[in-house]
Amino acid sequence: MAVLGECACWATRPLLPVVRTWELDARRWVRALRRSPVKVVFPSGQVVERKPGPGKQPRKAAAETSPREQRLKQSRQVPPSQTPSTWEESGLRYDKAFPGDKRLSSVMTVVKSRPFREKQGKILLEGRRLIADALKAGAVPKVFFFSRLEYIKELPIEKLKGVSLIKVKFEDIKDWSDLVTPQGIMGIFAKPDHVKMTYPETQLRHTLPILLICDNLRDPGNLGTILRSAAGVGCSKVILTKGCVDAWEPKVLRAGMGAHFQVPIINNVDWEAVPNYLPADTRVYVADNCGLYTQAQAQAQMSNKASDCGWVCDRRPLQFHKYEEEEENLESAANKGWLPELEVQSYDSDWTEAPAAVVIGGESSGVSLESLQLAESTGGGRLLIPIVPGADGLSSAMAASVLLFEGKRQLRARAGRLSGDGSRH
């Protein structure tokens, strides 16, 4: 039995290392089969390099790559639309409004009220185009409310530093929006100063020596349309006297379609201070039909409607800023010497020889006595746009457009005559 045991032990001892050696050799062969050679040397001595397949890198090269290089390579592989590097590198952060957050409602209450708006010196701009125009012109943003982060990323990064960014629900913006289809972004800006604004270079190159004075305009839609016409013509500036609707009211901004950031606007000016904003030798012209009363007393009929076309006045009472309570009519005012005697001339007569300022009256109250006095003192007059007898007069916005573009036509025609090539004008 002892002999058998020794034989058994002797027979089993050499088997263990043999099995282990075979297993190790087998693993080595499998690993060798999986490897792809970098270089192949043929018997002739020719060396051929083989590049690894797509997505495969040598383990040694991957190990030698630093973590920083790996992160850079991964960021390059991400599509540009999903790369937040510019946003994060700029250090911008935004807050997410929580349920019951009152920041949006409290700000909207302020900017939608003119007294609070003037006291706080802030305005509300809504929509990506209007906000982009304001930023380009140099307006200073304070707070942005937006429903999607993409709307903020579309704006210039350098203009957003120091601005409070608050992400809110679209339903909250819709509740406070004045637009039929809200665009999901609102901006609170400091009230722009026309002196500090940067207007488009093309606008500055086409500026004309024509200035517009809005006198007691109270309709937001009309004022916004007038500002668009002033920007389209190339007015040097627009002056809004006291009694006009606020130029920065949301409805005026919406009707202006960006004109606020294309032409200088001077808001809420006293008539005594208006001459300070006029260039030297400026002549002031009043756009109304009051001259028809003195010229056509023999006519049997005149229009009885001045409410729809405030720049036109007839026998009905002419409202003056200083005499609104007395409601003196045109005839008694003329007898008392309140009305200056101004020459009435057709709108297409040459009235742009010197720098000109055109006064547009309000829809309901017409032009003021102060505007007539200023026109008389500067050697101006009344500009008459003839219309069919008995027809309702033009609106303030339409009258302003007709006169401003007529002034531009006259300036272009004069420039053509001076250059000796007036045919193309």
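the 2nd protein, sequnce then structure:
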Amino acid sequence: MLSKFRAFSFLQIADPKVPARYFLLQCTASISSLKVVWRKDPRLDQAIENDKKWRLCARVVREVLNEPGQVIALRYLEKRRERLRLPVKIQTFLAQNPGLFDTYMDRIKPKSDLVTFLRPSDRLNRFLEEEKLIYEKNEALIVAKLCKLLMMAKDRVVSAEKLVEVKREFGFPNDFLVTLVSKYPEYFRLYGTPGEGKSFLQLVSWNKEFAKSVIEKRAEEESNLTGIRFTPHFMWKLPPGFFIKKEMREWIRDWLELPYISPYEDVSHLDPASREMEKRMVGVFHELLSLSIYKRVPVPILGKFCEEYRFSKAFPNMFTRHSGLFYMSLKGGIQTAMLREAYKGEELVDRDLLLEIKDKFVLLLDEGWQQRAEQLRVKREMLQKDMQLMAAKNKELNCNEQHFDL
């Protein structure tokens, strides 16, 4: 049966209204006409949409914080709008999100005209101090995540530049390569030439406790709670309204019955084209998404690690072939792999401890938005009072004119 299903077209867009770019994901069946149809999951798409506003604010904040002295001329930031994917002018953004920055006048060069500059507000600086404390409090978690990423990789080595690119996906602080590597020499060794794509982070020692996947830990917890031995297994659950053909259901059933292979296990003896290797790769993707902050990672970011984790070029098909485990969101024109079991509807229920940083940032934004709403309310009330006074004066003038005519 394996040969029959290996060359499937695993994604077919069923809705003719779906934009043409989605058809880039479609494969052509070469052996079997059997297909798994991609279906939109509005709730999981909404989970991505819900984060859109604060992520935009975070991009602007990072842009300012990365400047020398953490200050920037407003007109310079305005020129970067396209790169920041900011749909409004900077001044409009500042009005919509008060409390992030303070503005002041200064000269770019001596004797030049005064221009407007931005710097972090006191409120934002307090948040940045809280962020540092949260990172310090969860340092052990961050070290474990970094070790796990190296333990799953080929030769226990990952490009340092690539790790920096994905630091926000996994919750690593900006300076993690400087602070953690030097602080934990028993785990990490950094070598190569920084800044030229030839710098690498290597695992120095293997920690057995880190070599347990989320799947394996869950089986242990179930066994301890019930007293019955549970073997590690995937939680496969299709979303409402999603149907697959009988032949595919049988293939999935047989595949799920295969023994679970840990992403930390040596699989050099396995045939790369075997079902066992596919099960191991699904385990790797499951573990990577589980280690991420939001239990979802854009597919292009995962694609950067094809060499380190031995992904094939067709690895995105894995997320559609195993739709009971993953969802491939196309929100915003970007393919994003999501872990289904981590969400209940549009809410993330499998919460990472480092999400406290995001919660505090959203709270900071909420304070600014409430401040703006209050200012707009007062402004509307004042305008309404002015209009009432004008109406009263006009009425009085009309009465006086009528009395004069009499």
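Residues 1-34 have pLDDT under 50 and may be disordered. The longest strand covers residues 101-107.
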